[in-house]
Amino acid sequence: MAADDNENWEDRPLIMPFCGQSCWLVYQTLERALGRSVIIEPGLSWTLVRRQDPNMEHLAKITKCNTMVVLAEKLIEESFDPIVDRHTRNNMIQSVVYNCGSNFPRTNFSRFYTAILENDGRVISAASLRIPSPEIAEIPFIATSEAWRRKGMCRKLLEAIESALGDIGIKRIVIPSSTEMLAKWQIKFGFVNVDYQTNKNIKELNTLMFLKTTRLQKVINPITRKTADLNFLPPSSPRLPPAPPSGQ
Asked: N or C terminus of the chain with fewer C-beta within 10 Å?
């Protein structure tokens, strides 16, 4: 995440694992929301998940999250042409959806989450989500199962994500769009070309970009966005612990 100028971490002896208190609060809020399904309307719910290592203390939640991640990865793989990193030769979709880590920032996807839309327990739409700064979220992949396309499911998932992100102070969403999808993102979903300053900031955050794609953005409007509570805590909540020292 980008450096947070509002926090003073100079007295820390080593590099912080988070940019500052605001990044830590966003991370903690997302972690507390994991595995909590929220009803959007009868028959439809959405859930935030990520792959996690087995832990007996939270086994039921982790099992649920990991199972949903597997189903989401399959859905996204079926919806996109294969994307292989030209340097590592890794499958990019798998690396992102399974939030694989790396010692190199460009290929470190450990902060990715997956937002999943379900119909009566069946995964019908999924989106990869990462928050590289306290104000920006990126969604490099979003897909809907073939049987549910052209029924507004992608819009419902995006609206839920947008509302939840707005609750924790995220200002805008950025996506990479293929040429064929540009008009759809702009006309149907309200995305626009990334402005100069945002594009400059994004380049410093190692956000994902693919060949023959264009970056688009959508500003989250806190007034008009719909409510899709995910039991998110306010960014200023005193119940969240302070950011840990380096190395934890």
From this structure: C
Q: Is 208 helix (H, G, I), strand (E, B) or coil?
A: coil
E strand map for 179-246: 192-193, 213-219
Three-state secondary structure call for residue 37: coil
3-state helix, strand, coil in the chain (%, to 5): 35, 20, 45
Q: Tell me whether residue 7 is in a domain.
A: no
pLDDT, one tens digit per residue, over 165-188 is 998 889 999 999 999 999 999 999
Element (H, E) at 97: helix 92-97
Residues 6+ apart with CB under 8 A from 171: 135, 136, 219, 220
* CATH number of domain containing 50: 3.40.630.30
Neighbour tally for 89: CB within 10 Å: 7
